[in-house]
Amino acid sequence: MSVIVDGISKTFGQQKALDNVSFSIDKGEVVGFLGPNGAGKSTMMKIATGYLTPDSGKVEICGIDVATGGKEVRRLIGYLPEHNPLYLSMYVREYLSIIAGMYDVVNVAARVDDMIDLTGLGREAHKRIGALSKGYRQRVGIAQALIGNPEVVILDEPTTGLDPNQIVEIRELIRNVGHEHTLMLSTHIMQEVEAVCDSVIIIDRGKIKAQGKTAEIAIKARGGETIEVEFNSDINTNMLCEAVEAQDIESIGNHTYKITHNGQRDIRADVFKFAVSNNYTMLGMRLLNSDMETLFHEVTKEE
Predict the structure, then answer these.
(1) I want to staple 30 with a disulfide (CB 3.0 to 4.6 A). Which of 7, 183, 204, 278 is the partner?
(2) Which pLDDT does position 179 carry in this prediction?
(3) In what order do the strands lie in the sheet with 248-253?
(4) Which of 140, 222, 227, 155 is nearest to 192 (CA)?
C-alpha cells in the first residue's frame, strides 16, 4: 500500500473535523477524496502530508509513519494545498529550480525542463508567476508537487476557481500524472472524480460515508441498483420480475419500467434475454443510480 490511514481523529475546539477515519490506497491508484465544503477533506490532506498532527491514529506513506518519518517521508510526498502558495515575484523556472534544489534533484535544469513540458508551461515559463492566469498558476503548483518525483501526490481541490476550459486542461494533466504516481485528489465536485479517479472515498462531517470503486459503493449506498428499460409495448412485469430476480418493477409510463435489484450481479443481459424469448422489442436500457452525483446526495444527506 502506498497510503494507509488508520483511525485518524482531529478536533478544533468544539468541532470534530475528523472522526476515526481509516482507508488505504494502492500503489498507482488515483483516488478521489470527495465531500461537501467543511467535510474534513483539507484537514485529512494536511495530516497526510505532516502539516497537522492528529489527535489520534496514524498515517503511513510507503510504510513510513508520517508523524516520525521526518525528511525521509516528506521526500515521498508531493503536495498542492487548496490555496496554492506561490512566490508571485519569482519567475516560473526560477521557482521550480529552487524547489528542485530542496529535493536534492541531481540535474535541476533537466528536471525543471521535464516538469515544464509535462505541465504545459512552455509558453509561460519566461514569466513571473504573478503575471500568470490562475490556471497556469495551478500548473506551476502541480509542477512543484511533482518535481521531486514523489511516490504519492496529494492535490487539494486543484480546480477550484478555474474557468471551464482551465478545468478541462487541469483534469487532463491530473490524468497524465496518475499514470506515474499514486494520487490522492480532494474535491467537492462529483464530475472531478468521475473524470480522473479510479476509486472514491466520500466523507461528510468528518466521517467516511462510502469508499471503493464507484459502481461498488453505489450499490452499497443505495442497497441495490435501478435499471430503466423501455419496450415498444406493455410487458408482463411478473414474468420479468421472476426472470431477472428483481426486488421490484415499477411502470413509469410509455412502456417504460424501473427494475430494482440487489446489485450483486449485472442483470442487463438477463433483461435482454427475457425480451428476446418473449418476443418483446426493447428500445433502450440504462442504469439510473450509478452516477456519482446521485450517490453523493444519498450518502451525505441530513440524517
Answers:
(1) 183
(2) 80
(3) 248-253, 256-261, 225-231, 282-287
(4) 155
Q: Dihedral (C-alpha) 9, 32, 23, 54: value to the nearest 10 degrees?
A: -20
Return the SS3 of 213.
Answer: strand
Predicted TM-score of the model (pTM): 0.76
Residue type, 156: D
Within 164-301, strands assigned E span 182-187, 199-204, 207-213, 225-231, 248-253, 256-261, 282-287
- Count CB neighbours of 1 within 10 A: 14
* pLDDT over 90 (residue 6): yes
- For β-strands 199-204 and 207-213, DSSP reports them as antiparallel
- Integer Cα distance of 276 and 272 in angstroms: 6
Give me the residue label for grid cell 487541469.
170
Annotate 219-250 with b (16+ C-beta within 10 A) or e (fewer). Answer: bebbebbbbbbebeeebeeeebbebbebeebe
